[in-house]
Amino acid sequence: MAKGIPSLTLIRDSLAETISTQIRQLQESGVLPQGTVRHPEIQDTKSAEHGDFATNVAMVSAKGLGVNPREMGEKIAAALLNLPQFRQVEVAGPGFINMFVDQAWLAGHMVLVLQAGTEFGRTETAAPQRINVEFVSVNPNGPITIGSGRGAAYGSTLCNVLAAAGNTVHREYYINDGVNSEQMRLFAESVRCLLLGNAVPENGYKGDYVMEVAETVRRMFSQGFHPLIAYSEKVLSEGPHPVLARHLESHRRLQNLIETHGTEGAISHADLGDLKLLAETLMTEAQSAALSAFGVKFDTWFSEQTLHDSGQVQSEIDTLEKAQVADTQSYRTQLKLAKGGKIEEVLQEQQAKDEDDADGVEPTLWLRSTKFGDDMDRVLRRRDGRLTYISSDVAYHWDKFNRPPNADKLITILGPDHHGYIGRLHAVVAALLVAEGMVKAESTGEPLGDIDAKLYSTPEERDTCHAALKLAREKLEVQIYQLVRFMKDGKPAPMRKRDGNIYALIDLMKEIGEAAKPNGTEEEKLEVGKDVARFFYLMRSHDTTFDFDLDLAARQSDENPVFYVQYAHARICSVISKAKESGFQADSISEDLASRLTHPAELALIKKICDLPWEVQRCAQDYGVHRLATYAIELARTYHAFYDQCRVIQPEQPELTHARLALCEGVKIALRSVFGLLGISAPERMESRAS
RNA sequence: GCCCCCGUAGCUCAGUGGAUAGAGCAACCGCCUUCUAAGCGGUUGGCCACAGGUUCGAGUCCUGUCGGGGGCGCCA
Predict the structure, then answer these.
(1) Per-residue model confidence as pLDDT tens digits over A149-169
(2) How far is the CA of A405 from the C1' of B29 (A)?
């Protein structure tokens, strides 16, 4: 585990701490009155005449202390001026404290950057958390689409950022392979129809990828399952493996069919469940390969069905029933909500008694999720006895807290179409917290109102449920990313096409690579495609819809910002290698480094480099990782400007050359760090566009 | 009806409650004998959808209106 650097070595944190200390001393010596002062925010200035950094601490704190903000600012400024970090401190406007920092002090931070090396950008945090992040998690019934690409890019980068900010992160993909799934049943049915030469069902799957799955399945039948069986047996002999065990049983069944009926006969006699297992496994493998090419790796690919097989689903449901947050009474509660989420009315809808139902009909098992803020109760077990998807979610969310062990928090990243799922997921976790006895509510002592009485039987139950929901919202954070509209030739390009085909992420990468690097190897093309696609997804806030210009992405030009940032890295590598030819080393830290770097373009660059850890921390706090892409562009721009104004290699000025090379090395370190977080490559060379 | 997201330059989008609202693309003008011109500098371009409110201060927070996108299954 990487250690990271203590956050106090960061410029902004260090300034904030210094200002806090000075204010405290001013209060102790009676220059400023006692009272709470907010932690100073260190802001950028918009023009050089306002100095290097500014803080509004006087403006936001003056009122509480009962003093004039400008006067307070003057007193703080006077105190700061005595410190070596500052060459000038001024109060401006309504009470801004504008700080002009000492250039050598500023440049001295470069030493810290160079010492941190590849660790630069990582920081320690006072309260590290153990976090499970689940993302992508699409059904194994098709390739990863360009739509899911956003979730993949966002989720993987968020994980990188959370880890860089000092947390322990577990990356997880949930495979929706439950045997009860209607969609997966239909997918398997479609594959079977293709295998048997029958027409695909009305709402079935028709894309070319389904045909490919069917062809692969046919090949597996003709080759037989012996190798797979042998492999599973070997692995299972070394220890338990629930998923493989299920596969082994299925493969044995299919092998028996082949031996009795021959290849074609086996296909037509095969159980739909066995075909489904083959089809979804192939699809999952394809998804995994595409995501891997996209730079996304998971610690766990978690199979939903294992929760059923192990009995965890049933046992968690029993626990919920015991705790009376789930029951089989024949009504469903629905909430009518007014604007602002206030409950206007509680409706209890009796279930129709269907006399036509045959034997074996069980009463519906309801999760009383309306006790936990959901707008309607949810079905856990259908009347035909089959469990719903949400029933697996109950066991799944409980199980997820084991990855990493004793997880503090779960983050689930979902697409815009799953927005309506947030409420019931929180209800699921809240119900679990109640049922597992994890909630201790303080009684509010308030009696049950009319509306409450329809939801809860006692005030204590209500208070417990409310407390559980509050805790659930802390334990499970759902992040929704918004829709992407893909534009081609100025027109929207649909993710799912009429002919049943899907615009797959892997195809997007290939297309971009083909256009950007027509003479490259397949691997190089995929890498370019990955870089461009990831950067495009990550440039915009995940929380807003945006247009993905496929033509621009495919164009290999200066219009494409990813090449702009990568070019900065390639330029630096070129300078450093040229310098080496002249006998200069970039990674040596000279003692007088700080005093040599005085040019405005150099100082701007130092400030920008040193901002990276701070940017990472901010992103980890509010999950707005798109700012890292903005940061990369800004850093590249600052470097390009420096490059234009400050010649690095000057043999007649070896000290300056060394200092500037160290600066280049610092930019390189920062760029590589941010590229790593964004999941894009750092090319050492970029060929001229002409070639 | 309810929920979520959005409305900022011609286009695509940034913008910690702070000072004169930014970038890329598009348009125009400059800069390669010198470390990669996939670069740099400059010009043009704005009732931050609208109306109230909170605040010393609002593009940012709150309420409402209008407009756009998405979601509200015993599907997952």
Answers:
(1) 999 999 999 999 999 999 999
(2) 62
